[in-house]
Amino acid sequence: MPSVRMLSQLLGEGVEGKEQLLKMNDEEETVPELAYIPAPNSPTRLEMDKKKEAVQEEDEDDPLDAYMAGIEQQMQRDSQSASTSQQTGVRNDLEEEDNEESYYRYMEENPNAGLQPTDSDYPDIEYDSDGNPIPPEKKKFIDPLPPIDHSEIDYKPFEKVFYKEHPDIAALGDEEVTDLRKTLDLTVTGHDPPKPVVSFGHFGFDDKLLKSIIKAEYSTPTPIQAQAVPCALSGRDVLGIAHTGSGKTAAFLWPLLKHVSAQKPAGEGEGPVGLILAPTRELALQIYTETKKFAKIYDLKVICAYGGGSKWEQSLALKEGADIVVATPGRIIDHIKGGATDLSRVTFLVLDEADRMFELGFEPQVRSVCNHVRPDRQTLLFSATFKKKIERLAKDALKSPIRISQGTMGQANEDVTQHVLILPKQEAKREWLFTMLVELLSAGSVLVFVTKKVDAELVARDVKLREFECLLLHGDMEQAERNKVIVAFKKNVCSLLIATDVAARGLDIPHVRTVVNYDTARDIDTHTHRIGRTGRAGMKGTAYSLLTPKDKEFAGHIVRNLEKAHQKVPEEVLDLAMQSSWFKKQRFKKKDQNPNVGGVGLGFKDKSPVAGYSSSSAPGSTLPPQTVSAPRGPATDRLSAMKEAFRAQYQNQFTASTEIPPPAQSQIVPPKPPGSGKERKKRSRWE
After folding, report:
1. Hey, which end of the chain has fewer CB within 10 Å, N or C?
2. Contact 226/201 with Cβ under 8 angstroms?
3. Where are the transmembrane segments (predicted)?
């Protein structure tokens, strides 16, 4: 459309403008013609539809034509591939991989091929109550720290010898030291280990530390403390192997405080002097609480870095400087990579429960942390077991260590009285627990272990329905909630805690008097740590283990655990364990018994009556005991040995049908071949 201004100009031009305006209107009013669309079902519409169908039929390919076209395309592709695959001047004997090349390639792809793993290196497979294997949980893998060249770093010297032997201890002779270690049930190996002590006054601590020890209600040193503390104060590396609840936390904590307090306090941005690695956040928090209690007398700053806590808050605290850091391996590596701290000042390294760290898959991380600490450090390693992996770590991380072992490795605490009960079915455990709760709670706090998280929630729900107050702890809970539960149980706000194996390690709660293994543990080490939650630091405790007939495989481990702790094994528990094939075989082997009945091996003589067996040993036998005489012949050939072996086996397995003993049989004379009585006449070839 023309604008208003344009219209005014055209009208002002006169007749020519009017003609031009009319022409523009005619051009704008021109509308394009629309195509003719016939009405539906009209003759024209039907005719148009028929034409479209005919065109579509012509456009469709004939099946035969399509098949032939496909054959031609395939022939063209085959011819092209044949032409490209032709090679000239190629020797197959040079191009193909020979045996030696394939061997080197295989060894490069499989570096561990041919290595024989030890029993302890096999992964521990966990099973549920039905015997089905439980797949391991997929966790985030934390890359270890990169290697470091210590020769390029100028480390400052430090002091690590703070022990002066007390005159009373120096006066002890070698025999008296041996008797004292035997009394403490200690086995000490290594070059020139210090003598054990019998009192806190022999350690040479200052008055401030001694007052804190007395305030913490320590009366006398535990066996591991009596030997490990003098070794650590002397600047020696220590490898401690002791059961749970032996007081090993204080055994490395007190020397650590003396070591750190003798060095310059940490400034802003400086790393720690003492580093303690723990496998789990619960154990790390437990060590942190104990360390903070004693470190405040020296104004030392202690920081705990563990997974599940606020990483940002931990990094801020580390950047301000710390004298002692208690951490889990993965989290301390994260902070080192993030620049929050470094290990250049660490001169005292502690690895607590190293076996548990290896079970959780932290071996690469632990080794990388050890390699990042200066080589002339002092290292203390504590473990409940001493498997091959721990032995290899001790050789790599420790220098000329003193090995201290209390009792038998992996044995239960003798201060814990164990009761093993066999119940007919799983439902009977709940009734037993409800019946015994009042009696158990009257003696002190009770800790109930349940293997599965779902079962723990069900047991806690049923306990609350019976109007008992209880706390619940398992791995699916948030870290803040777990800390809240642990603090409430420690303060004895509630005397009953139902937990999974997340509470089996690291919880040091003195007022726990009873542990109930509602479900059997996944392995005997976990069982040992469970019952170790009571009877700590020389106090007495009680543990109940509830078994069902389905637990026959685990019953054998409990029997051996009771025997190592010098406790009586109930007959019904032993009978249940004897139903397990592996325990039965080891039991016979241990007692030099042979359940198989048989004679001597082929080609050997009987030196005595056949293993002392008689016909009366067979079931239902009424014959008096008989002694099988030695073979009468020389029995030097194979046939005589076979005869004697079968005869001895027959007499041992024979069961009489009457009470009258049969007459002694004379030696059986083998029948002569037919015609042997007549002299054979040689026939003539002419007859």
Report:
1. C
2. no
3. none
* β-strand partners of 240: 382, 404
Cβ–Cβ < 8 Å for 324, 256: yes
| 512-517/445-449 β-pairing | parallel
Order of all β-strands in the sheet with 186-189: 186-189, 402-406, 238-241, 378-383, 348-352, 274-277, 324-327, 302-305
Residue type at position 481? E
Q: Are 631 and 607 in contact (CB under 8 A)?
A: no
588 close to 595: Cβ distance less than 8 angstroms = yes
> Under a CB-based contact definition with an 8 Å cutoff, are residues 169 and 202 in contact?
yes
Identify which has the larger pLDDT, 550 or 591: 550
Q: CA 401, CA 329: separation in Å to the nearest integer?
A: 23
pTM exceeds 0.85, yes or no: no
CB 286 within 8 A of CB 245: no
Picking from 484, 413, 494, 493, the residue whose alpha carbon sits closest to that of residue 448 is 494
Q: How many other C-beta atoms can be found within 10 angstroms of the C-beta atom of residue 537?
A: 17
> Which residues, at least 6 apart from 20, have a Cβ–Cβ distance to it below 8 Å?
10
Question: How confident is the model over 293-323, as pLDDT tens digits?
Answer: 999 999 999 999 998 888 899 999 999 999 9
Structure tokens at 471: 């706390």
Task: List C-alpha distances in Å: 319 to 238, 268, 593.
Answer: 31, 6, 66
Q: Higher confidence at residue 284 or residue 658?
A: 284
From residue 362, give the alpha-carbon distance in Å to each of 130, 144, 248, 469: 30, 9, 21, 37
Q: Residue 350: which of 502, 457, 248, 470 has the closest Cα?
A: 248
pLDDT (mean) for 477-506: 84
pLDDT in tens, 120-157: 444 555 655 555 666 555 555 677 888 888 888 889 99
Burial class of 393 by CB neighbour count within 10 A (0 to 12, 13 to 18, 19+): buried
Whole-angstrom distance, CA of residue 531 vs CA of residue 543 = 6
**How far is CA 139 from each of CA 330, 360, 669, rounded to the nearest angstrom?**
11, 10, 77
- Letter for the amino acid at 504? A
Lowest mean pLDDT, pick from 142-156, 266-280, 450-464, 610-624: 610-624
Q: Which helix (H) or strand (E) holds 480?
A: helix 479-490
8 A C-beta contact, residue 377 and residue 346: yes
Contact 232, 317 (CB under 8 A): no
Alpha helices (H) along 565-668:
571-577, 581-590, 638-653
Q: Tell me: pLDDT of 13 over 60.
A: no
